[in-house]
Every structure is written in C-alpha cells, then in structure tokens.
Design brief:
By secondary structure, the chain is mainly α. It has one domain. Helix content is about 90%, strand content about 0%. The protein contains one helix and no strands. The longest helix has about 40 residues. The protein is elongated, with a radius of gyration of 18 Å. The N and C termini lie far apart (about 60 Å). About 0% of the residues are buried. The model has no long low-confidence stretch (mean pLDDT about 80).
C-alpha cells in the first residue's frame, strides 16, 4: 500500500503535533533537571 502525498502530510502533521505536545509536557516536567544537569557540567568544566 502506497501512501499518497496528502496522507503523508497528514501523518507528518499529526506526528509533529504529538511530538510538540510531548515536548511541552517533558520540558515543563524536566526544566529543573535540565538546568541542574547543565550547571553541573559547567561546574565540572570550570574546575
């Protein structure tokens, strides 16, 4: 079964929506962890 260009665009748009929604959820959840992670790396580099 071949996907038409239209089907592919719809799938891609849905995928992008899912990914962006997941990214928003993850970013709000993980912001402090990421900041701590980056700052610890910076601290190690500064040593």
């Amino acid at each position: 079964m071949r996907l038409s260009v239209f089907d592919t665009h719809i799938l891609f748009a849905n995928l992008l929506l899912s990914v962006s929604a997941a990214n928003v959820t993850l970013s709000t959840f993980n912001t402090t962890n990421i900041i701590e992670h980056i700052s610890s790396h910076v601290f190690i580099i500064d040593k």
